[in-house]
Design goal:
Chains A, B: InterPro entries: HTH_LacI, LacI/GalR-like_sensor, Lambda_DNA-bd_dom_sf, Peripla_BP_I. Two copies of one chain form a homodimer. Helices cover 42% and strands 16% of the residues of chain A. By secondary structure, chain A is an alpha/beta fold. In chain A, the strands form four sheets. Chain A has a six-stranded parallel sheet, with helices on both faces. A four-stranded parallel sheet of chain A has the order 9-8-10-11, sandwiched between helices. In chain A, strands 3-4 form a two-stranded antiparallel ribbon. The longest helix of chain A is centred in the N-terminal third of the chain and has 16 residues. The radius of gyration of chain A is 25 Å and the shape is elongated. The termini of chain A are far apart. The mean pLDDT of chain A is 92. Chains A and B meet through helix 4, helix 5, strand 2, strand 3 and helix 6 of A and helix 4, helix 5, strand 2, strand 3 and helix 6 of B. Chain A binds a DNA duplex through helix 2 and helix 4.
DNA sequence: GTGAAAGCGCTAACAG
DNA sequence: CTGTTAGCGCTTTCAC
């Protein structure tokens, strides 16, 4: 391994100068800077981050905590895209991601311990409020953090404007003449689930429509299985008066609902109109293509990254703790004007 | 920050002893071990990995290189599941993952430099052969690595048995009476694309069926868009003699092909039978549910992890460089006996 | 079974 | 503008 000493010796200067050169101190003359860089290159020197971290207490590592338990982790189309965008952005600033888990080296360590062990400079939280207890220790520590899912007091969170999205979906359906609008919710212990559901109720009320509990079902989790079950249950609950439209709180389940309804003999959109939420990739290719609410995942990831970096670097931040990213109605073919 | 010195002082022993206790040296008496652990706990001590890494040259970090460019990264259902399984497994051994990228801190650094900077103990390669050049430096360095996608001389790779999978698909179709079997391939510069295509040709030959170039189309990349385009092209190329079945090299595209065919008036499976490859989550919920070849992603991730850890810890390995994970035919409803 | 001491590669005052 | 020096927190001989 070639070190700063090797470079110094070869370049005829001190290790300190090499260090300064690599850290872009302005106090280095052009000449020596150039010389140092050249010999570093020649010798194939790469700075050693462990040593640097030990000396500076900065690892350039950002912890990411997400919960595989709820099928809402790296494998989830929503979070994986946010994560990708987040990672790209922090990469531009020299940071890397490390996944924080509870189980570590066979013993039960808390998330906090894992963070401390890795010495992360900050943390991205992508877990639902359901896991409030397990991340409590990190929330209470003075590790900088930003959330893209749960909402916590005095912490920044970047999240879609669920109310806006719900209203966009519902207003569109209403505009098409629908008055019997059902809702398949995501788990209500998630922020998305709760907010979209509440917006649904708020919308009904704002239009003077009566809330009918039979028109609402909550999916157990974020899997396709749960979605199918929910769709079936909705049909069962409303067999005496089927809805003409259903607002489904996320695309994966909107999709499964469509196929489930179709299998039961309903035509989409003629018999039932559907609007989803997420605009995941496949939604443009379903039969029929799904009308849905787009979440700007690239923006969420990027904003969260910028925010976290500013926090870490102790820059001035003049944003509210809760940053809402606007959503957008994507009209495709799963909705039609209500039949007379 | 509480260090080993604090613990030592409080426990009435030397830092060296504390270190030994934490590293499970057997030369520590039960009594002092217990004492140390208790006071460590009391003081809230967590080992600092940067310091440990500096002293030992071991970071407990594993680099992961995957290529977002081909839409085949963290966002891809196949790789994200492998990664999840891999991550869980290495986590059990105390390792963590860090993503290796080319662009780092604004300057163009090669993958190798990123690895060196982070001092990774090993690398998981999940990039196609298309990127051979960019990972060449890693391959040539003496960093331990395992691949789950490309195949490189003298390197371990854990990958599905694509030939087996193709034969399972094709034999099933053949058994159902199909003789006009088309193939939609993934990009042929990927291992999966090439091997499945070659197996397709081998199968035809083995059954004395004539290979007809018109029955084959190669998708441009791994997106739904490319799949749709490929499906359309297949229809166009074969308008005078449509295939009765098509073997599609991956589920995402199999799915899009189904909907595309359906939109063009073909019934699945009555007019065209489809078998895919991957068994991604959604495949059980398409209309009709997709018959496909299952890849055991959990196993791939786990095996790759075990292999890499053994490599890192210089254990004996008696496995071939190329480890093929068996595939499995999952029969659902997208295939039927050929019409007379 | 335990401890003293040197050192891992780098940074950060402080001098010069 | 450059160099000296003293750590950062931990591990690892080698004595005891």
């Amino acid at each position: 391994m070639v070190t700063i000493y090797d470079v110094a010796k070869e370049a005829g200067c001190s290790p300190a100068t090499v260090s300064k050169a690599f850290n872009n101190y302005k106090s280095i003359s052009q000449k020596t800077y150039k010389k140092i860089m050249e010999t570093a290159d020649k010798l194939g020197y790469t700075p050693n981050n462990s040593a640097r971290a030990l000396a500076t207490k900065k690892t350039w590592l950002i912890g990411v905590v997400l919960s595989e338990e709820l099928h809402t982790g790296i494998t989830h189309p929503h979070f994986s895209e946010i994560l990708q965008s987040f990672n790209t952005r922090i990469g531009e600033y020299g940071y890397d991601i490390v996944f924080i888990s509870k189980r570590f080296g066979n013993k039960e360590e808390s998330y906090l311990e894992h963070c401390l062990y890795r010495g992360v400079d900050g943390v991205l939280l992508a877990v639902g409020a359901k896991f409030k207890d397990e991340i409590k220790s990190i929330l209470e520590s003075d590790i900088k953090c930003v959330s893209v899912e749960g909402i916590y007091p005095n912490k920044y969170t970047v999240i879609s404007d669920n109310r806006m999205g719900s209203f966009q979906a519902l207003e569109y359906l209403y505009f098409l003449g629908h008055r019997k609008i059902a809702h398949i919710a995501c788990p209500l212990n998630s922020v998305a689930g709760r907010e979209r559901y509440e917006a649904y109720r708020e919308f009904l009320e704002s239009r003077g429509m009566e809330f009918n509990p039979k028109y609402v079902v909550e999916a157990e989790d974020f899997t396709h299985e749960a979605g199918q079950k929910a769709a079936l249950q909705l049909l069962q609950q409303t067999f005496d008066d089927f809805p003409t439209a259903v607002y489904v709180a996320y695309d994966d389940v909107a999709y499964v609902s469509m196929t489930t309804f179709q299998e039961k003999g309903f035509r989409i959109p003629e018999d039932i109109s559907i609007v989803g939420f997420d605009n995941i990739k496949i939604s443009a290719f379903t039969t029929p293509p799904l009308t849905t609410i787009e979440q700007d995942r690239m923006e969420i990831g990027k904003r969260a990254a910028d925010l976290l970096i500013n926090l870490i670097e102790e820059k001035e931040i003049d944003e509210p703790y809760e940053i809402r990213i606007p959503t957008k109605l994507i009209m495709r073919n799963s909705c039609s004007r209500v039949a007379e």
